């Protein structure tokens, strides 16, 4: 009997506690307060302000910092700290290009596939006619003195698991060669600093998708100048992008098989 009274008392106490404490209060956990955004003014502050439709005065404010940090988080930029640095700016260029990367008409429109390489914006895409079949992605082209050549080219050799025989056997996955040893290929490194030895570097995932998009004999068109480089390698006169409108410079006829000049170069190792 005593045991029954104890049990009933415990039930009564529990009932009273449940009535006094609203459901969920006991298990609720306060959300962590986000850290204040305190990054200073970055070198690309005004460009990010214009993109994000902020007051474009080139001076960081707490509101600017929060907006830039949100942009970074949304687009996978790390660290997402609100600082308008080079990586954030380069990511912004890709985001702006997504709707229509060829809005300026710099890459010639053809009925066949053309891999478009914009050295000034450091991005590339692939189009068939005016339809983009490979969305714009960031690249890293040749450094000062090793500039990626400009003009019309064709993909003449592909090697899925290539290693450079010029640069310490460096891995060049998903290599697609288009100009005397210069190639599209993947790299695990940072695309946003320095430059290559002339190749067009891509993130590994992007290089794999490009491998699945292009084929031998596909056209490649390269134009512009990489920021921070001085153009030293000049295109052949017939391919000069300054002498003619880009759309008036067609690639040469596409030879069948592998005639001289289209076989793998002796040292296809520029990276």
Order of helices and strands: HHHHEEEEEEEEHE
The total of beta strands comes to 9
For the sheet with most strands, the description reads: 5 strands, mixed
Order of strands across the main sheet? 3-2-1-9-4
Mean pLDDT: 80
Percent of residues in beta strands: 15-25%
Q: How would you classify the helix and strand content by structural class?
A: alpha+beta
Tell me the radius of gyration: 28 Å
How many helices? The count is 5
Structure description:
It is a single chain. The chain has 271 residues and is an alpha+beta fold. A hairpin with a 2-residue loop joins strand 6 (171-179) and strand 7 (182-187). Helix content is 22%, strand content 20%. The longest helix has 19 residues, at 2-20. It contains 5 helices and 9 strands; from the N terminus they run H-H-H-H-E-E-E-E-E-E-E-E-H-E. Residues 10-21 and 231-271 have low confidence and may be disordered. Strands 3-2-1-9-4 form a 5-stranded mixed beta sheet, sandwiched between helices. A 4-stranded mixed beta sheet has the order 5-6-7-8, with helices on one face. The protein has helices at residues 2-20, 45-51, 62-74, 86-97, 204-211, and strands at residues 113-118, 123-128, 131-138, 151-154, 157-163, 171-179, 182-187, 200-203, 219-223. The protein starts with a helix and ends in a 48-residue tail after the last strand.
